[in-house]
Structures
1.
Amino acid sequence: MTPLSRRAFGTAALASVLVGCGGGTSEPASAPARRTRGTRQTGDRSADASANPARALGRSAPVRLRIPAIDVDTPLIRLGLEQDGTVEVPPITAHDRAGWYRHSPTPGEVGPSVVLGHVHVGEFGDGVFRDLVRLRQGDTIEARRQDGSTARFTVVSVRTVAKAHFPADDVYGDVDRPELRLITCGGPKEGQEYRDNVIVFAVLSSTSP
């Protein structure tokens, strides 16, 4: 990650993550706590042991994401930061797409690559990540990259957490291997907003040209 990208990635961890979940607008998904320095591993050690981490790849932006277990096959758009320092989210459109946060590592690089998606897109109905909560340990996620390679990840855990207690360090904190984070909204609705976030944690298990 370049110094500029690293600073922006750190900024996102200190700012509110935004994930639009319903209606016609986006809403705050959390107010993350301060990042800690150093290297850490995903918290669920028993789940980690079931994965077989592969060698890291170089940097190449992702262009498509496939999750066979929940029939997701989506182009990936690039997301940055809003003017207020919060993470940009995919637009609310009829043809909903997930988005890769471009200040995070690319899928296959060392570090946590972050992908955001909607669970609901207002008048257009279900979002691309509507079934994210159904993923289970061992499921496969494939990220097709701009250089033609594919990074395959194995799900190690799926968490539903209150937005008020978003686990910023677990999502954004430094790790010593290639990992993936998929984030959407979930849980019960409070008015027009979802109360929780659904976060999928996965580790790189194989690559192909």
2.
Amino acid sequence: MTAFPDPARTVFPDPQSVAVALEKAGYLPDTGIATAAFLADALRRPLLLEGEAGVGKTALASALAQARGTELIRLQCYEGIDAAQALYDWDFPRQVLHLRAAEVGASVNAEFDLERVENELYSERFLVARPILRALRSPGSVLLIDEIDRADDEFEAFLLESLSDFAVTIPELGRIRATDPPLVILTSNRTRDVHDALKRRCLYHWVEHPSLDREVAILRRRLPEVTAALAAQVASAVARLREADLLKPPGVAESIDWAMALQALGCRQLDPQSAAMTLGAVLKYREDMDRVVAGGLSELLAR
């Protein structure tokens, strides 16, 4: 692993200072998350966050960038993504126009240096920096590699190579190495297992659903217009839904959506009627909605 000098940008002396900074950015971390983020920054190691969808993995990366006062650069993974989408590409249409313009110039001017123009085709002028290259060139940025479990094995191998030295080689331009490497956050919803080789390169943290009190605090922080009583009712109901045998248990994102929907309708409390009207904000599968309704909304809210 390449060693880097401690940069002046390191502003978090301990996990508690990370927690305070994240809270100021609107993210309420628990001790485990704050410690994992501190160690990733202090040790210059990528941090792999796994957990169910909607528990706040992506939001943590955004809050870290805000807390550090740096740019958040996001690479959204998907099936079939390759190095060109992640690293760099060449602006082919502009290269063609440049070359055609040069050919016109050469046809009317015998002294026109066409060879020089051709050499310019693979210069910085026509380089399209994708997220990884942008992050290497942005001192102290936060690079979010979102949903790595959606990519394939070959892309994981590419990432492992790129993140090992925080450097890439562009044949036409040479080797580009980060002077102040980005803080790298990888997220996975665990739709498949990430390979051990990539996990060994990273620090690891499993992100749990928040406790009831913490979820109420999150709702109140994100939606200050929602009353404490309604926030507590929503958080309690969502906690019970997570215990049910659902295809997609609701995450914090769904809790926020549910509270927003209730607030938009002017509901002062979560009762069976308001729950039935807004159930689509918290459950995203018809089978889950049918199961909850069949079990009785009154029973769900009364427990």
3.
Amino acid sequence: MGIKIAVVGKGGTGKTTVAGSLARLFARDGFNVFAIDADPSMNLYKAVGVSNETMNKVTPISEMHDLVEERTGARPGSSGGVFILNPKVSDIPDRFKVAGPDNVQLLVMGTVTQPSGGCMCPSNSLVRALLSHLVLKRDEVIIMDMVAGIEHLGRGTAKAVDAMIIIVEPGARSLDLAGRIKELAEGLGVKKLFIVANKVADDEEAQILIKAGNELGLELLAVIPYDREIVKADLHDKAPLDAAPDSEAMKQIMKIRERLEKEFA
């Protein structure tokens, strides 16, 4: 069974922790899982639990210039010329996936610019086509750690995403971005939008975020407390699920996984 989930939000809200932990939890439950790192920071591997040694050998898809040129007909960095907008990508996930704990398969997209960025257009074309293929053609559970916006999801791809989870933290900027993401996602036809309140220190913060989510018309998936165990896991460079499996934050992420499975099973 394939479930396609995009995790979005402002940088620093904890979306990568949520995305990586969800990927591991779905895999532990017997699902075939692809964890897709489409965030420029490219830190999803840490949340999944792939070692630094392994990742040092990995080249992001967008930086594979020979592959980009082979599939699009143009080399990143070259000026002018035309390139293929819908290149062949069906073989890429299985060729370049990285095996992680619990048999999660990690795929690192890398940093791409907007189409107006010029020299990176061929890479952008390849990444967009690859995301579309993963969402539309693959049967696995696909967990995508996205950039703050959702620029690389085309309309057809967005419509096929089963759920978009917007991670917010206490703060006006995080909530403002959630509102903008909601408008864009609805315009693209995303089926189901959820909100997750993260790094919540007390009941007052929780109530403010819950109220804000209600005003935005977003369905609340969970309230994740601010948890020092998750901070310690990061300090020790370990995946939260390995370092703090019994933490209060991880218990809430487990509930998110259960809710999503019931929702889309």
4.
Amino acid sequence: MSALTLKGPYWVAVRQHRTVLWAVFALVGLGLVAVIALRVLSGDRDADRMTSPSSYYGWEALRLLIEYAGNTLLFLPLLAGAFVAGPMVARELESGTWRLALTQSTTAKAWLGSKVLVAAVVAVLGSVALIGVYRLGWSNVSGSSGLHWADRGPYEAAGPVLVGYCLLGVALGALVGQLVRRTLPAMAVTGLLTGLVLLVLGVLRWSLLPVVTTTAPYPGPGPRWSGYALMMDTGYLSSTGERLSEDACFNPTDPAAGCPADLNITARYADFHPASHHWPTQLIETSILLALAAAVLYAAFRLVRARHP
């Protein structure tokens, strides 16, 4: 039992921030209770809810909860990073209380390591638990408006990429907290940097895997794809193989006129990501985030070693 007992700076880190730990547990518990209650009320995924008002309202309430939860969980990495940067690192450097740890036979590297390890464990366990709760509700409403697997919010909240972003936030907090050394500015900078990574990778993620292209002869029915696919581009193909945009044949005076003969249109095309690209994209993006987190964390420990050998 004694091997499982926290000692030294790890015990201090948990003791100092136990309120936040209890808040994480409470958030997971409340979310789980709400999702289970609404799932029971909404009934089976394929049930005919028009014949049961309680089932319809339960399903709609669950859909709204999951929609807002997905958007809210986007801020979890920012909060994790800001908390590490501010209350856990910068505040102690700003007030000088970190020196007390050094008088207890603890090195500066061990002091920072205790902060990072405690924050990382809580971030991983908390985000994994929240992903599980989210997926429990999302599985009953996925595919509805705003809850497609590739939408911003559901994509991050329903897979391991959220864990990667949280760990990157922790690493950025450990580095920025040392560089800024003031609580509120460190929290703001870390939140901005984490949010910037979220935005950049959100733009680039659908370039990580090649799109699937399907074509269909023109004139005739357009190309077909699964309703769960993420559409990237559609348009026309000329006889030379040149791609033309979807509005190349649009005639404002006669919308039903079709494509002009001089364009030599022979087919229509569609570029899309099938639903099977969800998990490979998640794993690739998570790997990128873990590599970034490792690099930032390495820089953070190099900095603490350089300043406090």
